[in-house]
Give the backbone structure.
Amino acid sequence: MTLLDIARNTGDRRAGIWLINPVAKLAASAVLAMGLVLTIDPVSPLVVLALLAPLIPWCGVPPLTLAVRLAPIVLAAVLAGLTIVLYGTPSGDSHFRFLFMHVTDGSLALGLATGLRILALAAPSVVLFMTIDATDFADALTQILRLPARFVLSALGALRLAGLFLADWRTLEQARRARGLGDSGRIRRLLSQAFALFVLSIRRGTSLATAMEARGFGPGMVRVPARVSVFGRTDAAFVLLFAAVTAAAVTAAILSGQWRWLFA
């Protein structure tokens, strides 16, 4: 049972975003990115963050989990903005100067716009992709976007096995320590252990390919999907909502005179 099935069976309204088709979430994220990538101003990302913030309770993600996932983005935005403030192209009045660091009105404005732009671009996408189940995403890609089933399902199988890498690494490390091989030569040990993990991954991939072909995933076989992925009116309305948010952000930036064409 996938997370989408759980949301449907429990009827939890807080997890309503789980019911949105993954392709709709992908399209919404792309629409938002296309609008914000054209400009480097502080108004449009502020409008996006202000309009999408009320939708956070609807995502059904625990606040602590959401904070942990968004913390690297906030840190990256702060560091990027600070770098632009200190080392950006100087313009306007000067406020601070030391060696290569030069803080001016222009660098302050550009640093603020850069930090807000990173938040507005990354934060909504992270929230959307947190609520996508890998199996539902694969079903949507093959049934709605008509991507090759073999490629999508192979990627899904590899993604499902990605979590085993860490467990395999720990098992190899414990096995080497049990044989007295993990107490010295850190670099040599890491290279040897990485090669062992590589060999183990190839063997597991070969077994997975054989198992998938035995279950009807080979060439020349007609398969019937176990779950039907539907792009309905709610999904279309979700994409239109993000398109409206993007349009409002662009309009606000133009009317306020803050619009700065990125490629100008």
Notes: The radius of gyration is 24 Å. The chain has nine helices and two strands. The beta strands are 94-98, 101-104. Confidence is low (pLDDT under 50) at residues 1-14.
